[in-house]
Amino acid sequence: MAEKLNVPQEQEGHAMLSPKGQQRRRFLSLFAGTAAAATLMHACSNNDDPSPDNGVNLGSGDIGILNYAYALEQLEAAFYIRVTQTFFSGATATEQQFLTDIRDHEIAHREFFRNALGGKAIPMLEADFSKIDFSSRASVLGTAKAFEDLGVAAYNGAGKLITDGAYLLLAGKIVSVEARHAAMIRDLLSNGSFADSTAVDANGLDMALAPPDVLKVAGGFLKSKINASNLPTS
Questions:
Q1: Where are the beta strands (DSSP E) in the chain?
Q2: In 3D, which of 185, 174, 179 has the Cα closest to residue 99?
Q3: What would the pLDDT profile of 70-100 be if each residue is shown by its tens digit?
Q4: How sure is the predictor about 195, in pLDDT bands with cuts at 50, 70 and 90?
Q5: Which residues partner with 56 through β-bridges?
Q6: Which residue intervals of 32-90 are DSSP H helices?
Q7: What's the pTM?
């Protein structure tokens, strides 16, 4: 069942991989063994075109990149809002607090982009979380891991496309928070895995993915279609 992302806030409480296909496969392999793996592979196979003509147009230049980030933050915020409405079975007090903190951060990120973009912001998107079992710890944390790793890779991949230094600085501040989320979720799933070889390469660098690759994955959790055809590529 699709869910509208405009929930009122008062209720929301690199190893060198040159071929793009190889990089995408390696990124998806990070999710092996989690409940999100099959979902993400399914998302990629059914969203081959991240820029449909009738989709929500992100725009061009820096505004397009900001809308791209805004779309991802909408998705993350909606996910954690749903997670914290009814926690999965057996969730500890610590897990509930961590997930609530992440929810609040993602809402803040979403609202920051909405306010910064003003009239140039894309509309609120519609999510589809029907593939997620919100009563299952493995499903919820596996999906959270997937979203957080994807978010970090998305910001890392989009940084070089931003021309305004002020925007780049803000993106750097946000991606550092997303990386903290990713590390915490990874550690909840498997203690000590927060910065293992599936997250950080031999050079001490995190993953980076270009917008088309990110949207192929994120599109599996969105009912709304996104048109990224005008985003910068270099």
A1: 2-4, 56-57, 126-128, 226-227
A2: 185
A3: 999 999 999 999 999 999 999 999 999 999 9
A4: confident
A5: 226
A6: 36-45, 61-85
A7: 0.79
